[in-house]
Write a structure and sequence with these properties.
CATH class: Mainly Beta
Strand content: 35-45%
Shape: globular
Order of helices and strands: HHHHHEEEEEEHEEHHEEE
CATH architecture: Clam
Helix content: 10-25%
CATH topology: outer membrane lipoprotein receptor (LolB), chain A
Number of domains: 1
Strand order of the largest sheet: 6-5-4-3-2-1-11-10-9-8-7
């Protein structure tokens, strides 16, 4: 669990230890906004700024992504504790119809440059996370399978990247939201929304594939309230979402902050994700 990983970082104060610990214990997003209704004389942006309308837009994010089909994804997960800040990055593709994806996750390097870590390949599927090159005594040619509903964070942070489908479904739990304004992401015009989601509400509204994982997260984090920033393009597709999670560091009796960012682009890209056969999944004991 990521809490154990960060706890170790907090104890020794060195970011490099996170990479080693992460490899051992497990690593650590739209709706069409055109055609909105509103009072006569109001501009489109003025109508979008209405709180209730912003919430409704965000509640539809997951469904809109599913209609979009697929996308390339880049992820970033930042953790801060005890004056130490580390970042885990990922890149890959995701199919929102099948809810399957593939990411290459890069662990942070030791500050001294002494440790090098191979990228971890992750396959995302409904209810499961598969990892290869995980280390911790797992053979290099074998996969590790994790039941995401069994994780106390529902795999919102454990894998070092939030499943793009789960990130979007979390927005179904938006309780408050405001329209910040227009901006650009990599040259693409987008609308920026900011608000707070409730994991309990998100779990009740989520699709069957993500419901159990979000229920687990609602119980496992320090608070079910998750601040977020979401950016939707002119076609209503989610281009970027950043969630701020927090959980309790049992050793230091404090709260650890984790910020997870997902970027989506190149919608409609071909995605071919084949899950491992049973014989390719490691069945032995994973080193602690």
């Amino acid at each position: 669990m990521v809490a154990q990983v960060v706890s170790r970082v907090a104890d020794d104060g060195r970011a490099g230890r996170l990479a080693a610990a992460a490899a051992t214990t497990g690593l650590l997003v739209c709706v069409c906004v055109t055609g909105c209704s509103g009072g006569a004389g109001l501009t489109e942006d003025a109508r979008a700024a209405a709180g209730e309308e912003s919430v409704e837009v965000l509640h539809q994010a997951a469904a809109t992504l599913r209609r979009a089909g697929s996308a390339k994804a880049r992820t970033s997960m930042e953790m801060a504790t005890g004056g130490t800040r580390v970042t885990i990055r990922g890149e890959g593709v995701y199919d929102f119809e099948l809810r399957r994806g593939r990411l290459k996750v890069m662990l942070p390097q030791d500050p001294a440059g002494a440790d090098e870590h191979r990228p971890i390949t992750e396959l995302l599927a409904p209810g499961a996370l598969f990892m290869k090159n995980r280390g911790a005594g797992v053979p290099a040619d074998k996969w590790v399978r994790v039941d995401t509903a069994a994780l106390s964070d529902g795999n919102l942070v454990t894998g070092g990247a939030t499943d793009p489908s789960a990130a979007a479904e979390l927005l179904r739990g938006a309780r408050t939201a405001s329209y910040v304004g227009r901006t650009e992401l990599a040259g693409t015009p987008v609308r920026h929304y900011r608000g707070t989601a409730d994991l309990h509400v998100a779990a009740r509204s989520a699709s069957k594939d993500n419901r159990d994982a979000l229920r687990a997260a609602a119980k496992g984090f320090a608070t079910a309230r998750v601040p977020f920033d979401a950016y939707l393009d002119e076609e209503g597709r989610l281009r970027k979402v950043r969630h701020s999670f927090s959980f309790v560091n049992d050793r230091r009796k404090g709260t650890v902050a984790v910020a997870s960012t997902t970027l989506l682009y190149d919608f409609g890209v071909a995605v071919d994700v084949r899950l491992p056969e049973s014989a390719d999944i490691f069945a032995g004991k994973i080193a602690e």
